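In the previous chapter we treated chains in isolation. Here, by contrast, the input contains two separate entities that must be folded as one system, with a combined length of 520 residues.
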Amino acid sequence: MATSDIGIIGYGQSVYVKRTDRTLLSFLAEAARNALASAGVAKQELDGLAVSSFELPPDNAVTLAEQFGISVSWAYLGTAGGAGPVASVIAAKRAIEAGQATLALCLAGDNYDVGGHYRLMDNFNRALKNYATPHGFGGANGLFGIIQRKHMETYGTRPEQLGRISVGQRASAVLNDNALLRTPLTLDDYLTARIIADPLRLYDCVLPCAGAEAVIVGPLDRAPAGKGVRILSGYERHNHPPGEPAPLRGGWELFRDALWRDAGYEPHDMDFVQAYDDYPIMVAIQLEDLGFCAKGEVGAFLGRHDFAWNGSLPLNTGGGQLSCGQAGAGGGMIGLVEGVRQLRQEAGRRQVKARRGLVSGYGMVGYGHGLSTSSIVMERTQ
Amino acid sequence: MTGGMSAYPQPHADADNHPLIEGWREGRLMIQVCGGCSHTFFYPRPLCPYCWSAELSWKAASGRGTIVSFSLVNRPNAPAFFAEVPIILAEIRLDEEVLLIARVIAREASSIRSGLPVELVSGPEAARYPLPTFRPRQ
């Protein structure tokens, strides 16, 4: 996907909370209102709407337009779990380039808690409901424990290497008032935390919570001066490789070369990486398959980097899902919003010297693993 | 042990998967074979995921396989499992070269290793579990 003058002109986030009586719609509305303010756009100007949310049914993008009182010429319902929000931004950019809309609000969020997460996963799709739930599979934790062990046994990846992801991100979360977990975390804390699904321990797992994220896609000249974020490239892939329940890859490797070619940059040119962090092992696999290191060598790569906002590779600089919480499908947009915030130089005490960065999505757990991947490279406008 | 059986979440039987569910009630692991391309596969589908043929038949797998990888789940998804933790959840490669995710029953979870040969549990023990379930090969 080539760059154009259609990019991200605003962003917004709701408060994140562990439990709430508020409705999902109120979280989506809060994120949307903040995104409008950030973009300097009036609600009546929106004519595109995308939403990614597990708990939204029986509502959808069109009934959400009714709830929000907007009439749109483009509506998109994310279907790719945590890869859906980044995919929705790719689709919004194309829709606007094609003339189908002019300003699109892309939303993602959920409100659930730990119990709600298990209910969601038990009924996530027919294959899981019929062939995993009756085994007591433990939701995503049980499945990703299988993947992490396989990576450890195939490539020699060690917990003390993976833990550097959780520890580095927590150092950034300490500076994020909207992170639910913001007490400092040591590698020893990580390694000795209680076991959830061996080899996964507590700080390998996200805290299900309530929250929402939003961006507005539109002509970059509509952004406040100096605040537009150019999308240099973007790709997605679903169900790769077919037929493997627990692969050590997910599709990034198929579009990696095109992603960097279109962007005109290489991995080492990125000032930050906002990678989908449902588990550190999946961040590690993204780093491998997006070209930050060779396949199977991520353990050593993790060992020589510091992933805090001020470290050698700023990673999930707001703390990511591992520290902020996972607001369902909002987890697929939290990195995008943080990336836009960084490129607009609005990240406060955790501001990275950011000119450009990578955002990557992953999700829609099927029979054994996440089926969907998506990535974009973005750059600040001067 | 009908109490345990009824407490576990059950698969939903439909026209595509009932041979699997009914076969397991008799202790067999049924997998599908494609008449178009000869691939075998799991989980049940109305079309061959390799060639999209609808010319499918069922066969009983040998019931033997090998653990590829596994996790030991301390927080399962339903209360019926809470007294049985850790749940041994494994990716298993059947001798027929089909990969599936299934539960393994073992007295000592610490004895489980990747590469361990496994076989279907049998008899009254099999009747406890809603889906084909394995144990270390004896």
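The beta strands of chain B are 30-34, 40-41, 56-60, 64-73, 87-94, 99-104, 117-120, 134-136. The helical segments of chain B are 2-7, 18-25, 123-128. Compare these points with the single-chain example from earlier in the chapter.
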